[in-house]
Amino acid sequence: MPLRTLVGCCVLRRQVALLPLALLPLALLLTPACQSRPETTCLALDTALHRRDLDAVHHLVSKASQAAIDVLWRAGESEKSPFHLASTAPKLEVRSMRSQGLRQVVTVAQGKTEREWVLVEEDGEWRVDLFETALRRPWNSPTSGN
Q1: What does the pLDDT profile of the chain (146 residues) look like in tens digits?
Q2: Residue 144 lies in a domain
Q3: Is the separation of the CB atoms in 127 and 118 below 8 Å?
Q4: Angle at CA 35, nearest 5°, toward 29 and 134?
Q5: Range of the domain at 69
Q6: Which CATH number fits the domain that encloses residue 49?
Q7: Is 125 within 8 Å of 38 (Cβ atoms)?
Q8: pTM, 2 dp
Q9: Is residue 24 part of a domain?
Q10: Number of folded domains in the chain?
Q11: Quick check: is 46 in a domain?
Q12: How far apart are the C-alpha atoms of 146 and 144, rounded to whole Å?
């Protein structure tokens, strides 16, 4: 094989190998961005819980969490029901937010109690994942600053 052909093949291979890197910015532009913000989702969920709006709550939690919401909702309107407790709790305040892999961890407070909520991106929206949130420090545990 002549040297000219050999050099041409190497250049072509290098250009083909770099093609995915060249297309990366275009792919990022075409990827739909999340339509909501994590802190907005947390505040909207708090509002939906205060209003006892099941449809809104469903929209604001992850798909995996929706079945748990249905079970909890059917638990009834007793004073120990999670929805009754949520509807009478102080308003939620967002304290901080950080990325953790593909998730957002939002530190929220109700009164003097702080907690971390884990949000996942689904269908272009941030949604609260109740299972990952439940694995974090419970509401009644003391905060690290106390």
Answers
A1: 555 554 455 544 555 455 454 544 444 344 445 677 999 999 999 999 888 888 999 999 999 999 888 887 777 666 666 666 676 778 889 999 999 988 999 999 988 888 899 999 999 999 999 899 888 765 555 554 44
A2: no
A3: no
A4: 120
A5: 38-134
A6: 3.10.450.50
A7: no
A8: 0.67
A9: no
A10: 1
A11: yes
A12: 6
